[in-house]
Amino acid sequence: MDDDSMISCMLMSVCNFASMLPEGVSRFCKRIQEYEEFLKKRDKMKASMAALKKENEGFAEKEKTLLLKFADLTSKHEVDMKELRKRLEAEELQDKAYREALDVQRKAFLEDKEGLKASLTQATIANQWLIEHGFQQVVTYLLHSTEFNSALGDMYTKLLNHGKHLGFVADYKAHESRQPQEQSSFFQPQAFDVFKESVLKMERLTYPYVGELSNCFGKPLLC
């Protein structure tokens, strides 16, 4: 016998017993009515409990589904994060290699720059020496060169021979006319000293255009 049947039997017994008492019938009817209302409330409560249980089961199913989705999303997120970390590490390595390559190029550029600066300084010094001393040195070398002095010596020799010839002719004429040698225009005892002084003067000779070139350092070519 279940609980509801037992309660019904107990109520019937109580009602039968109460009906034997004065006013028992009215009390019995009242108790029956209260019992029916109780049953309605109980049935309604059972229906509410069943609905709540069903709703709770639905929530539990939804929670399970959400947990599965969350686990799936978490797994995908971990995979994506691993791939992202790998990509970031690769990009970081690539960026590091790129920076190192740029640093090598920068150092090479600075070395080339310093080399060019040194070359420019050396070229400037060489240019300055060429303008201020080089051209004059070239002229000096030319004046003391074998070719120039050979040609100059040959010219001096021929000039001396010509002078000897003129002197010989003049001396012969003077001898025929019995003219003293001091009265001849060719008589010049100091001629050799004059000649040596002229040679020294030529060796010490300066050239104005060489001096003008030495003033052109740092100026345009059309100075």
Describe this structure in words.
- With 223 residues, the protein is mostly helical.
- It has helices at residues 3-19, 24-143, 146-176, 191-203, 208-214.
- Helix 1 runs antiparallel to helix 2 (24-143) and helix 2 (24-143) packs antiparallel against helix 5.
- The longest helix is centred in the middle third of the chain and has 120 residues, at 24-143.
- It is rod-shaped, with a radius of gyration of 69 Å.
- The mean pLDDT is 77.
Q: What key attributes describe this structure?
A:
single chain, 223 residues, mainly alpha, 5 helices, rod-shaped
Q: What's the count of strands?
A: 0
Let me know the average pLDDT: 77
Q: What is the helix content?
A: over 70%
Structural class: mainly alpha
Q: Major sheet: size, sense and barrel closure?
A: none
Question: Could you name the ranges where pLDDT drops below 50 across 5 or more consecutive residues?
Answer: none
- The first-to-last residue Cα distance is 136 Å
Radius of gyration: 69 Å
Give the assembly state of these chains: single chain
Q: What order do the SSEs take from the amino end to the carboxyl end, as H and E?
A: HHHHH
Strand content: under 5%
Number of helices: 5
Shape: rod-shaped
Give the topology, please:
Layout (H helix, E strand, L loop, with lengths): L2 H17 L4 H120 L2 H31 L14 H13 L4 H7 L9
Helix pairs in contact: 1-2, 2-5
What's a concise summary of this model?
The protein is mainly α.
